[in-house]
Amino acid sequence: MEFIRKVLFVVVFLLCYVTYAHKDRIERPQNFIFVLNTKEVVRFNFTDSKLEKFCNEIISGKKKVTQVQLFYKTGENILIRSNGKQWDLFKISFKNKSLYVPQNKLKKIPEIHFLTLNLLWSGEDNAFNSSYLYLEFDIGNKYSFGVFPSLQLHFENGKFLKSELWSQINKDSKQLQAF
Q1: Residues 113, 39: Cα–Cα separation, whole Å
Q2: Where in the chain are the domains?
Q3: CB neighbours (10 Å) of residue 89?
């Protein structure tokens, strides 16, 4: 009986360890720099109480941005630039490495909810040491069942792989669409 108990403990421990080991790491932006079309530069820390209102004004069109930089605790940063009509640059960087979202995808991205722009990867110390990473964030100004569509931009082995759009189709379900 004691042997079975020890074996069972080891099996349960290994199952829990494997489950934890395959969990994606999620990083949220810590600092934000917005460059408005008026050339004004506005900086926020993620704890700033005015950040959410400011981001909502961008989504609603009350404020126009030409460039946004987001900085993550693990050293990655994201630069997003607009030409005034659409996004024309979306770059993720870490030290001297960079990844880019292709132009054909950028053209389709409407309003970006910068507050929700999360970086996910397999758990290494930073996203660029992982075999894959992806960005996940809400887009647009129309929601369904109280939820905005969520865009995922996937990279694998240092290259853009795919983009996926998740839309709420009822209160309990989301639908995946190619983007």
Answers
A1: 21
A2: 25-178
A3: 14
